[in-house]
Specification:
The complex is a heterotrimer of chains A (115), B (282) and C (153).
Chain A (H helix, E strand, L loop, with lengths): L2 H10 L4 E8 L4 E7 L5 H21 L7 E6 L2 E7 L4 E7 L5 H13 L3
Antiparallel strand pairs in A: 1-2, 1-5, 3-4, 4-5
Helix pairs in contact in A: 1-3
Chain B lengths: L2 H12 L5 H11 L3 H14 L4 H14 L2 H14 L4 H13 L3 H14 L4 H12 L46 E5 L4 E5 L5 H25 L5 E8 L2 E6 L5 E7 L5 H22 L1
Antiparallel strand pairs in B: 1-2, 1-5, 3-4, 4-5
Chain C lengths: L1 E2 L2 H14 L3 E6 L4 E5 L4 H25 L6 E4 L5 E9 L2 E9 L5 H18 L11 H15 L3
Antiparallel strand pairs in C: 1-3, 2-3, 2-6, 4-5, 5-6
Helix pairs in contact in C: 1-3
The chains are: A alpha+beta (115), B alpha+beta (282), C alpha+beta (153).
Chain lengths: 115, 282, 153
Amino acid sequence: MTATQTALDRVTRVPGVRGALVVAAADGLVVAEQLMDGVDGQAAAALTGSLVGRLARTAESAGLRPPAFVHLRGDSGSVLAAPGPDDLVLVAVVGPDANLGLARLEMIEAAGRLA
Amino acid sequence: MTDDIRALTARMADEPGSLAFLELAEALRRRGQLDAAYKVARGGVSRYPGLADAHDLMARVLSDQGDLAGAFDAWSSALQLDPMRTSALKGIAFLYFRAGDRDAALTHLERALEVDPDDPAIAKAISRLAAAPLPTPPPPVESAPPELPPASAAATAPPGARRRHGLFEELDGGEQGLLLVDGNGLRLGGRLAGEDGDAAGDRVAAQLAGVSREAARASRLLGLGSWHSIAVESPDAHLVLAQPTPDTVLLASRDPSLPMGRVTLLAERAARAARAWLEAEG
Amino acid sequence: MRALEPWVVQPLETFLAESAARLTLLMTSSGQVVAQHGFSRSLDVMTAAALGAGIVASTDELARLMGGARFEALVHHGQRQSCMLAVFGTPRGRWIGLVVFGPETSVGIVRLFFDQMVQQLAAAAPREQPAAPMLAENFETELDASLKALFGR
């Protein structure tokens, strides 16, 4: 099992996670995905890649190092993103009752091992 | 020397950068070894200026030493870093009580109660304060520290920060590390920490309008509804973005030693303050 | 942004706003331009349309030789800007989209909103009308009129 698949497995096992994907951030394209029905992987990859890129530029303008974790919270769920090496980002789409703390820990650890 | 102090001293000798200074200085303070506690706390604060625990510890040592103005400054620093720190709110309340300002003391205790409504000691302190006679303030001494500033100044921004029309003045820490930005990327108020806080704030403000649009789009198209907040963990800071109104975005930035949950609470409070200010400004 | 057909305007405007594309051309598979954005000269529009249609025709042939289905999209990545050519069906036949974009956006964003535009075009297209026979003497007049419309003159 590749590091990518392992990462997706770990994250999707967290309660409340509707899907996870690995994204090539600069292109906003899916590298690998594990999604439940109703989660649009193409949209998640493109939109999250774009948002993470913009947040990285914001951090840079503030003299900060790039984000290690991002949590976008909406009315009915969240998107979590953990940048990894080589412009890869591990992304999870989660429901409002997801175990965010566990998802965050799993994602940060898994993102560091992406290759 | 007790065993715990011996062990902590040995640990500090092995790892001078260790956070063990917090326990060591506290143990020395409890034993009444205030000079030693002060030296350890001072070293810790200079090594970890962004750590609220360090300033809180320094304040307790200074308070025990009778340096009330120094203690006030240290607790104020702790509050700037961690606006929800009840120990600092209680400490400042105690100082105001000692100085004979019951109203200011009550204001700070009530704020502490808002943050931690389950702490019985705070509620007890409030009811006792309301009933107790005020202590006689100590007589002025030539070398005495300056008088304590009025209550609202506990939330005053540090020297050098520009206040913009009272936008965040009610918040602990004032406008430092907070930015309010309009839909065109222009700064409405607040500034970032650092000497060029205004310039950095303007640069960041220019990016934030785009971030808000991206977040709204992502949240909508991924079926999450409207966006509420974005929490960003950088090795150098914890950032939280919120949307006080549909046309504005607020950024709260704090040292990464402050838990993200607390930064989120701060951002929510700042967003409420921003909404009220925007309504008042018309 | 200019379009020959009014029902193209709204979907294309939405695509341009969301994708941040620098140049966009919508054309029929024979290279007849339907809408454009970002071009400043009619010659560039005609050249780009002809080249785009030619590239699509070549890759169609390549796909046929490989025994596979037609390619839906091609992306050429450049250092300072990139170009996407995508083929899609409409009630008016097969069309081609040529999109040039820079690093301020991404191919993922461009594709995401291009696909949405295609769905919106399919929904917005009026019912098929019988095409008038094309006479040689009408062709130049039609082309001239199209170019004038695309450049707002």
